[in-house]
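R.M. (postdoc): so does anyone remember the format we settled on? I'll just put the structure tokens first.
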């Protein structure tokens, strides 16, 4: 099967590489053509000048771009994926976007006899590079059956949540939970410091109990050291939380903590931390 991958950002670049390693004939498209050329130099495969050119002979197109607007740009129009992907093909959207745009594109794909799956991922840059992403999917059983072997190239878990749009809703839950955990960890470490405790000993004590989390295991040391030049950027997290808060206004969910942490991330941005890791919430707390 020929696979097209559209969008070679921090996540998409290594994900597309795993497709080649798994033996798939892979063609890529990226808005900045030089990055696609660099990917071809590293992994082989082919690059295309437009999303349509990438999709025209593919059976599956994977997309990983920035937001709803970016997604529409690569999907619609004469150079878009929908115009070129042969009937029976499946589009897998790894972008973290709104549930409404997923439903919109799912309907547009169906009109052209194409499948569509919204498949946002969790696991960050390290998960993408190591092929250990968690994927949450919205779409039909039939479409998932077609693409599951493809997704297994870079996933450690694949969970079918429900119909189109439900993958994006699940990703919103993921980001809501991460925001709350990171704020709690930031305040806990801040409290330990102010109390004169050895943070390393505190983490040793509490990480074996109910407070344990991925964020605690992987971020406590860099938070204490004030190192944030890596990982999932604050700008991206604010984009994701904005999507979740907008959805909450539609469905009536009450997200008090999420609103608060989003404002705290705004403070981090004002400190110059737009591209800092999300663990930089601790940076706004006094030393």
């Amino acid at each position: 099967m020929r696979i097209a991958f559209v969008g070679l950002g921090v996540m998409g670049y290594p994900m597309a590489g795993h497709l080649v390693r798994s033996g798939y004939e892979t063609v890529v498209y990226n808005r900045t053509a030089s990055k696609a050329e660099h990917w071809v130099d590293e992994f082989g495969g082919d690059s295309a000048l437009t999303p349509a050119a990438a999709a025209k002979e593919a059976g599956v197109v994977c997309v990983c771009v920035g937001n709803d607007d970016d997604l529409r740009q690569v999907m619609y129009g004469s150079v878009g994926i929908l115009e070129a992907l042969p009937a029976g093909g499946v589009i897998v959207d790894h972008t973290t976007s709104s549930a409404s745009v997923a439903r919109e594109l799912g309907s547009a794909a169906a009109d052209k006899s194409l499948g569509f799956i919204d498949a946002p991922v969790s696991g960050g840059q390290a998960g993408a590079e190591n092929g250990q992403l968690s994927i949450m999917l919205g779409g039909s059983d039939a479409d998932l059956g077609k693409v599951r072997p493809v997704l297994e190239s870079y996933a450690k878990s694949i969970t079918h949540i429900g119909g189109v749009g439900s993958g994006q809703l699940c990703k919103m839950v993921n980001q809501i939970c991460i925001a709350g955990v990171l704020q709690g960890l930031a305040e806990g470490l801040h409290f330990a410091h102010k109390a004169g405790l050895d943070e390393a000993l505190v983490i040793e004590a509490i990480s074996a109990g109910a407070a344990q989390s991925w964020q605690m295991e992987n971020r406590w040391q860099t938070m204490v050291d004030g190192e944030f030049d890596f990982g999932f950027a604050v700008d991206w997290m604010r984009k994701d939380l904005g999507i979740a808060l907008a959805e909450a206004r539609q469905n009536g969910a009450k997200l008090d903590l999420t609103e608060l942490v989003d404002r705290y991330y705004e403070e981090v941005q004002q400190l110059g931390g737009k591209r800092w890791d999300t663990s930089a919430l601790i940076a706004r707390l006094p030393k």
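R.M.: ...and that's the designed sequence above, right after the tokens. Also worth knowing: The two ends are 55 Å apart (CA to CA). The chain has two domains: 2-163, 169-284.
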